[in-house]
Amino acid sequence: MWVEIVTATVGVLVLVAVVGTRAVSKGSIQVQLSDAIIAALAAIFVLLLAGRITKIGLSEKGVDIEVVEIFRSASEKKLAPQISTLPVEQLDAPTKGGIADIPRLVERQIPALSFRLATGAYASEAVRQYLLDLTQHPFFRFVIILKQDEQFFGMIDARKLLRTLQDPTSGWSFTEFESVINGGNAADQARLSTIPGLISAAKSVQPETDKLEALERMEALHIDWLPVVTGSFLKGIVERSALTASIIADVAKQFRNSAAR
Questions:
Q1: 47: Cβ contacts below 8 Å, ≥ 6 apart
Q2: Domain ranges of the chain
Q3: What does the pLDDT look like over 92-111, one tens digit per residue?
Q4: pLDDT at 72
């Protein structure tokens, strides 16, 4: 609201100054078109500084002004409609089994693999083989970690996890990863939370999160995706590219609806 008040005030003051200058110089006191144009330019300048207008251009129809409020309105829409359109929303993430299962998982083109805490069922060499084999395929992307009751603990880019576990300077190894997953107690979970690139449940978004907040969180975390949880359970993921496309579509709809009025 303050922006509109300042804009109107600036416009009036500029108009008064222009007319007053002409009066002092013994010109006519009447308001001319040039006076109104100068006042309008001053008002537009205020709106530009306030972020209400992001672009001014010329077209065959005259002056085009792109208003940021339309984008802001579109970005504040909830995630739920967008999540339903994501091709990887429902992640097929079977729990890791024996290495004999790897060919079958490749055939299914699974996008993610899940580990369950505190089962004591994992061996470091099998974890290594799974990651080495599955990351050779572009469809495989994530490792998901679930609590014993299948509540969501966190997830990580599978290739980033592999690089970390292979790096002798990272402070992590396949053996330690296996150990904390098999243990799953509070200390193990705290240690697991420090693995580089792990996106914990606390950093995930809800279906009702608005799109702008999700994009801002991705930016802060330097990632292009976020887990989406319902309650304490993983629902899927939302990706930057899909969110951006969705916001653009929302903007286009608003322009179309405005033009139809």
A1: 3, 7, 53
A2: 2-75, 94-197
A3: 677 777 889 999 999 999 99
A4: 58
